[in-house]
Amino acid sequence: MTCRVGIDIGGTFTDFALLDEATGNLTVHKQLTTPDDPARAVIDGVPALLKKAGAKIGDVATLVHGTTLVTNAIIERHGAVTGMLVTKGFSDVLDIALERRYDMYDMRISYPEPLVARQFRVEVDERMGADGKVRAPLDEKEVRTAVDKLVAQGVEAIAVCYLNAQANAAHEEATGALVRAAYPKLFVSTSADVFPFIREYERWTTTTMNAFTQPMFDRYLQRLEDGLKAAGFTGALFVMTSSGGTVTVETARRYPVRMLESGPAAGVLLSAALGQIMERPDLLAFDMGGTTAKGALIRGGVPLKRYEMEVARVHEFKFGSGLPAKIPVIDLIEIGAGGGSLAHIDTRGVIAAGPRSAGAMPGPVCYGRGGENPALTDANLLLGYLDARFFLGGEMSLDTEGAAKALERVLGKPLGVDAARAAWGVHETVNENVSRAFRNHASE
Fold first, then answer.
1. Nearest-CA neighbor of 193 among 166, 167, 155?
2. Which residues sit opposite 189 in a β-bridge?
3. Rounded to a whole number, what is the distance in angstroms from the first to the last CA of the chain?
4. Interval 16-67: pLDDT, tens
5. Is this structure's pTM higher than 0.90?
6. 356 has which bridge partners?
7. Which residue from 15, 18, 149, 210 could staple onto 257, CB 3.0 to 4.6 Å apart?
């Protein structure tokens, strides 16, 4: 067993790389993501990768996996119906947030909705002091009643968020045990386990993110494990975290919130490694995928790290307009600009692109999979940046004529320009969006 495999699932493509440690040979493979079941792309792609490399599944000792599934689930609100057990009198903390305006002069600013709807937050009469001493004991009967109520409302996961649990987790641990005993299939996240530090708003938002994504990520990892096992994989499976490290599948199941920037983190680490080889210690790492573009600063050969990030920003460039997650993370900015970003004319009457993406299904018009609205990839094809006959190394052909017609219909005719000028407009618009985001990130 001398091979290592790396896999990254993006919104449009799933990428594979196999390293033969004995020879140093690297083999890569790329195929469309399967949005209905992301694990299927991995399970189907591994044999194709092995065939290219002339290797067998038994040769693979380690498989490391990065994914943006957790981030996408929060942004698109495709997670589980989540309930919350919270200290009496504090059920509105998620709405009150930090009482901080991310734009002082915009009277119309909005904030992302909490992941737990108001009707799914149930107060529990308990209280722990900041010194860790019990002020009001936990009423177990009240907890059981609250859980029964939430289950009757159809919740799949519960976030247990009590005041000062970081000082003494006894009440949260007891509640978690009660919930698991009564409903073994219910997913439970306790705030003192997910993020055992002060400041209840950040601790509770991080915990609700964990609970919201846990059922989805657990099912995904189970399908992935089962599929790889059926294919004969007996090596070690690890999942990339937002900090650039890796964890076992068991840890990933328990703390999916740590996988928020799982895929992008790997790209930053590779940029830093390349910088060391080229003797260029100060870099801007740039990673454009099908759905998003990511940027990170590398200074002195080391990526900058933080212990907080924001997800689902209402304003892509404004810090404070998203949901805070307290996790170790490589400091990067991510905006909705990628190869699949859909082009349109906005309310100002000018070209805009993103944040909506064509994804893998149907994908950009040039993929010939039923897409009707032009994307950045269609524009780049028409401009000659992509070779229609050699896309994916010749494994996939692109429809240049279809891309041109879509660009002319959606942008060209309304603006009075031909398809090529419309394509250049999309290209320039995305370039400026990305560069503006990176300038703001560098300034911050």
1. 166
2. 159
3. 45
4. 999 999 999 999 999 888 888 889 999 999 999 999 999 999 999 999 999 8
5. no
6. none
7. 210
